[in-house]
Give the backbone structure.
Amino acid sequence: MRLGILISGRGSNFEAISNAITQGKLDAEIAIVISNRAGAGGLEIARERGIPLRVIPSQGIDREQYDKLLIEELRTHRVELVCLAGFMRLLSASFVHAFPNRVLNIHPSLLPAFPGLDAQRQALDYGVKIAGCTVHFVDEFLDAGPILLQSAVPVTDKDSIETLSARILAQEHATYWRAVQAVADGRVSISGRKIAISEPE
Ligand code: GAR
């Protein structure tokens, strides 16, 4: 399965997916990494690993126009599954329709709790005892599509944003590639909001 990975920053989720491929755990190929920010740290990781990369700056372009550029680039690289990995932009309905049930996102909360920015801070401020991450299909709404996988982590009284974010991030890295593998294996069935994943053979 040819992956297109969209990033805006550090790129540690992209790196974890790339590691899972290198380690033979994930049967996929990263066809292209696209960043909407020139300074994204993840670009350096792609460069070091010889993974094709492209910066498509999003500033000052309207959403439909921008998403057209993204679709074009992803199609050029024959991408079959789009993985948002810290891509901090909402995608248009046209983008979602261009890759039906073929766009995944990872979010650092147990959705539908705490969508949007600073999910870990939202969780801490709310006082939850369990936090975590979610891999879901993307629709045109924010952090809203059907859920593929979730992983939970405990929140302790001593947690700061940094410690909680790090604990969640470790789970993100362990979870995202499994969701990608399930899609790549064709083990995912979707019925409305409900997703069933069968065990690997
Ligand atoms: C990750 O924690 C990811 O879950 C989050 O941004 C971070 C990106 O880190 N995404 C969102 O909040 C999307 N709503 P990374 O660049 O190191 O993968």
